[in-house]
Model the fold of this input.
Amino acid sequence: MNTIKIYIGLLLVFVFASCYKDKGDYDYHEINEVKISGLEEQYEINRWDTLIINSVKVENSLTDDADLEYAWYLDYKKIGDAKDLNYIISDKAGVYQARFEVLEPVADSVRFFYDFKVVVRTQYAQGLMLLSDNDGIPELSFMSTLDNPNKDIAHDIFNVENNQVLAGTPLSIEQPDIWGYGGTVWVHTSVASHQLDPVLLREVDRLDKNTFTEPVEECDMVFCRYSQILSDFGAGLGRDGRIYPKVARQDRYLSASLKPIHDMNNLDKMYDYQLSPMLLCSRDATLGYDNLSGKFLFFSNSYDVPSFDENQYDVVRPSATYIGLPWLGWGINMNTDSYNFTSLFFDEKTGEAALARQHNQIGRMRGQDSLVMLSQHYLHEGSKMVVNSANNRLYYSDGGNKVYMINISDPEFKFVSTDLGCQFLDGCKITMIKVARNNLSLYIGVQTNRQDGYSGDVYKISTRDGSIEEYYEGFGGTPIDLIEKEPVEGYDTGE
Done:
């Protein structure tokens, strides 16, 4: 009986299926394919500038008369609805994901798109940043190297961005590597060290475990620098003759080192000192030159000396220099794998000069030919110097407007000073020499005799022949220090 029912059911399904007529429309047609071209993978623009993109090409596979709609998006925010984009960037500095979208409504709203990135920078993203002395007041100036064909210079930017004036005497400006401080900029004066964010150049709040925020610590320094090739340890030298260590990622100076200080070779002996205003910082120690004894002093920390601050320099190792002349300056010479340094000595009373061509971080000479007395030189009390590690050359000024070069690796050890022949303004005085990041150029800061508000100029010259590559007039006051500020992506300024 069940078998008969199954046969009847199958017969009914066949009958109803044969009576059904398919009235569907199966007139298939091709979909118009849209090809987007003419866009870059990344656009870089300063904040508040207008992002203009009018190079987009839209090609149709079927007809050029296709009815298309357009849309532009910046991180999912619609910023345009025409084929060309004209958008004022008001978004904060950062990297944004962007999209250009083409919509074909008649084809059931088929969408085609092209993704790219937009990097929004501030006017301080990348450029030359100068610390100068403007009639006794420290001042920051900035010249962007991004889309700045007229070489416009922004003056007094610390005051503009922070509503306060730098105080004291200008000492140095630094931008440590991103690992050390996230690319922030440090401005050192005799009374304070200011940490600025790398995007807006606003002062970074200092944190304290008790008060959460605290003001910039006041000090009385004659030298300060702590971001160098070797490490991000460093120190400031106080007017009281003491060393104030500074360690990476700590927003304060550590305790002043002892003065007098324990002799490392005899801890029961106290060693007095009077340092020249120049320090060489390496790892967790500092090398200075003592004018009282004419010796190198290697400052470090010893667990054998009771101290309330574990990072305080509490011992010193005196080391003979074999020269005994006042120290003019030093330069880093890192052509080898070991820590090699070059120092220059000059006695303005006798006119004697010596080149410590190669010594280690504690001041010990390396090799019998490392110490050379300079028979021909143009050193002066106001000379500025720097060592270029790439070509092993020492560059120095004569206290006026001439630049000389010494080949440190001269195989015959003649060490003759060569005039680079730079044609600077008549009557100007060189107050700053810096090596460019590419090691192929020098930045020379000069004080001119112009009577306007900004009489300090900066020259960019070739390290090979001294030819002038760039000239920036009226950059600031008397140039003290300069950095090639690098952009830092993704830094949170807390706008």
Notes: The radius of gyration is 33 Å. DSSP finds three helices and 38 strands in the chain. The chain has a mean pLDDT of 83.
